[in-house]
Design goal:
Distance between the termini: 36 Å
Radius of gyration: 20 Å
Strand content: 15-25%
Number of helices: 14
Largest sheet: 7 strands, mixed
Mean pLDDT: 95
Structural class: alpha/beta
CATH superfamily of the largest domain: Leucine Dehydrogenase, chain A, domain 1
Number of strands: 12
Length: 411
């Protein structure tokens, strides 16, 4: 299943409604630049292992490229192209003056020591250095990368260019110019959007149930925020297993258990189920916060949730979207739901460039109106055109990108 073909299908579906010119559509079906690297690393045992790395710079129509860097054994060029396209859409949906990019290394980071991971990151930074910078392409954490990895990357880049340029990456540790509020930003932005949706649907969060797939930074934080908002979280999962209790889980206790044991297996007072079964639970809100292609044409007909809040990138295929829409299930698309992360990344870049840093309260006070206004704009377009929220989000984004492309003139 080509993730990039899914992305192009979403583009074409919205392009007609956005009334884009054929030239703009043609321009957006291909990335501006795709980079592929061989990354030789001397492993702890002295052997040299060569990894494959990618950076796709998809669109710079609205500003410098912006996008994360993921370390995953299944990462490939097709996936990274799709993710770069989605980043361009995401930045435009929330009105950021940024383009879209994505990077990845095909590696299972769990099989590398910390020293090997650092070497791999620094080798990639050296290869990528000529193509990036705060006014060119800005990296950020993604699947299996974190502030520490960004710190290594920034440090290696500084060695290469001969000066400190913190704005080359976002999602850095606070001590290296990171932003307050960045760690929870993606999930918090998702909660702001969900709160607006529940208000439109006249639903009380304290009467709702939720299942969260994924316990990384986004999924774990989202589960905590839902729980704190009074939603009964009945299921959570990591990459290997899921736990379920229809009466509700203590999210803090689940998080503590996972941290201590490294897995959810054997969590007391719960039923062990598969990640596939978690998606089909009878809940009000389903939160896919792991990887792409989780909800497909094969399981979309069995989804029982009323709302799907996409905190992962690309968790729902186009065929599944059609089935879900026919069944009246509201899907809050990834390009809106998880855009809080890139919004605070933009705030971090601004702080780096100004050398003036904000409190967490200031960051969240700036994040909330952007997320709520973006939701209202997408909701309004969905009602106006009688379309689903994903198509509406694409229409909003594509119109903004098209305006930027056309404003640059013919050249």
């Amino acid at each position: 299943m080509s993730v990039f073909n899914n992305a192009l299908e979403q583009l074409r579906k919205a392009a007609g409604l956005a009334k884009l010119s054929a030239a703009v559509i043609e321009q957006l079906t291909k990335p501006e630049r795709s980079l592929q690297f061989s990354l030789p690393v001397v492993m702890d045992n002295g052997e040299v292992k060569v990894f494959e790395g990618y950076r796709v710079q998809y669109s710079s129509a609205r500003g410098p490229y912006k996008g994360g860097l993921r370390y995953h054994p299944k990462t490939n060029l097709d996936e990274v192209k799709a993710l770069g396209f989605w980043m361009a859409i995401k930045c435009a949906v929330v009105g950021l003056p940024l383009g879209g990019a994505k990077g990845g290394i095909t590696v299972d980071p769990k099989k590398l020591s910390k020293s090997e991971l650092e070497k791999l990151t620094r080798v990639f930074a050296r290869q990528l250095a000529p193509f990036i910078g705060p006014d060119k392409d800005i990296l950020a954490p993604d699947v299996n990368t974190n502030p520490e990895v960004m710190g290594w990357f920034m440090d290696e880049y500084a060695r290469i260019v001969g000066r400190q340029i913190p704005g080359v990456v976002t999602g850095k540790p606070l001590g290296l110019g990171g932003s307050q509020g960045r760690v929870s930003a993606t999930a918090r932005g998702g909660l702001y959007v969900l709160t607006e949706l529940l208000s439109k649907l006249k639903l009380n969060p304290r009467k709702l149930t939720a299942a969260v797939q994924g316990m990384g930074n986004v999924g774990g934080t989202m589960a905590i925020l839902l729980w704190q908002a009074g939603v009964r979280v009945v299921a959570m999962s990591d990459s290997s297993t899921a736990v379920y209790n229809s009466k509700g889980l203590s999210v803090a206790a689940v998080e503590a258990y996972k941290k201590e044991s490294g897995s959810l297996q054997g969590y007391p007072g719960s039923q062990a189920i598969s990640n596939d079964k978690l998606l089909l639970l009878p809940v009000d809100v389903l939160v896919p916060a792991a990887l792409e292609n989780q909800i497909t044409k094969d399981n979309a007909g069995k989804i029982k949730a009323r709302i799907i809040l996409e905190m992962a990138n690309g968790p729902t295929t186009p065929e599944a979207d059609v089935k879900l829409a026919k069944r009246g299930i509201v899907v809050v698309p990834d390009v809106l739901a998880n855009a809080g992360g890139v919004t605070v990344s933009y705030f971090e870049l601004v702080q780096n460039l100004q050398q003036y840093y904000w409190t967490e309260g200031e960051v969240l006070a700036k994040l909330k109106p952007i997320m709520t206004q973006s939701f209202k704009q997408v909701w309004q377009r969905a009602e106006q055109l009688k379309i689903d929220l994903r198509t509406a989000a694409y229409v909003v984004a594509l119109e903004k990108i098209s305006q930027a492309i056309e404003a640059r003139g013919k050249h």
